[in-house]
Specification:
The chain has seven helices and 14 strands. The strands form three sheets. The protein has an eight-stranded mixed β-sheet with strand order 1-2-10-7-12-5-4-3. Strands 6-11-8-9 form a four-stranded antiparallel β-sheet, with no helix packed on it. About 45% of the residues are buried.
């Protein structure tokens, strides 16, 4: 890994407009082979969709707690995640004993019903807010389209011509999370985080931030670099599954959130991952395999059962 002091910016105009992406692929390889994070601009997502989903998030988090708890996170990983109920216990980056200081609403792919054969399948839980579902679904569709294009770009960046892995993203696992970080107290202990140091476990994360800030990315030397908001840009980072698929060529980089601003912080991460049935292994053409194959769904089950009360063994279905 290479030490860095700032997050690179990638202009996606050639990818979105059907132009020559050869130079962009090289820039992607450079950014995600050294930093693992980047801002993307000219990404083609309508700013109005982004504004609508932030408005929906603020309206949801302003609801009385009893109304939010009525759609508490279920075993399909959809619904309301209250503050102090999610802990990054699997983190090898810090000793994490305190829950994350955030609350969120989680939406995944909309399935008509639970299919016992498909982990995390099921319908979403929606609050009774006018326009909320529509705003989330429209945003999620736009981000799904962008995520698929970015996966193709990632394959170009690592020199993989075989596109068969993209079949696993035709019916993707998507996660739209509407996060609210209340201000942390001025004298908060050092091990209290809005989001504790962690790496994302999926393929791609596409983050929309408000103007408050608080996201930090860790360098190889252990320093923390701020990733401040850039208007209408997304912060995109690689997760552990894409790190494995790329045979380590693309980096999954630690990051955290500390909201010491004294303001309410809202962010909207969108996670774009393959179907839960996907087998994750280094792709042909990436060299001698550094990682053993794993099943994405089985991996997810272990992660969620360790980190969320709703998924822990013995918890009733809701």
């Amino acid at each position: 890994m290479t030490e860095f002091t700032e997050i690179p910016v990638l202009d996606l105009a050639p990818l979105i407009n059907g132009g020559d992406t050869s130079s962009l692929a090289l820039e992607f390889a450079e950014a995600y082979g050294k930093t693992g994070f980047g801002y993307v601009v000219n990404h083609g997502v309508d700013p109005d969709l982004r504004a609508a989903v932030f408005a929906a998030s603020r309206a949801f988090h302003a609801l009385p707690e009893i109304e939010k708890q009525a759609i508490a996170l279920d075993k399909c990983h959809r619904g309301y995640i209250a503050i102090n109920t999610s802990t990054d216990v699997n983190s090898d980056l810090a000793k994490v004993t305190k829950p994350n200081q955030s609350a969120s609403f989680m939406m995944m792919r909309e399935d008509a019903e639970v299919d016992p054969a498909i982990y995390l399948s099921g319908p979403n839980q929606w609050p009774g807010l006018e326009g909320f579902q529509e705003a989330c679904e429209a945003y999620a569709q736009a981000m799904t389209n962008l995520g698929y294009k970015l996966m193709g770009l990632a394959l170009d960046a690592i020199g993989v011509d075989d596109r068969s892995i993209l079949d696993a993203f035709q019916t993707p696992t998507i996660w739209l999370r509407l996060l609210h970080y209340p201000p942390q107290p001025p004298q908060a202990p050092e091990d209290l985080f809005g989001s504790a140091p962690h790496k994302d476990f999926g393929c791609l994360t596409l983050l929309a931030q408000d103007n408050v800030g608080g996201l930090q990315v860790q360098t190889p030397a252990g320093h923390w670099v701020d990733a401040p908001p850039i208007e209408n840009a997304f912060v995109v980072n690689v997760g552990d599954m894409l790190h494995r698929l790329s045979n380590g060529k693309l980096l999954s980089t630690p990051h955290r959130v500390i909201n010491a601003t004294g303001q309410q912080r809202y962010s909207v991460p969108f996670f774009f991952d393959p179907h839960v049935s996907a087998e994750i292994a280094p792709l042909p053409g990436t060299g001698t395999a550094r990682f053993d194959p794993l099943n994405f769904g089985e991996f997810l089950r272990g992660e969620l059962e360790a980190s969320y009360e709703a998924h822990q063994v013995g918890q009733p279905d809701t």
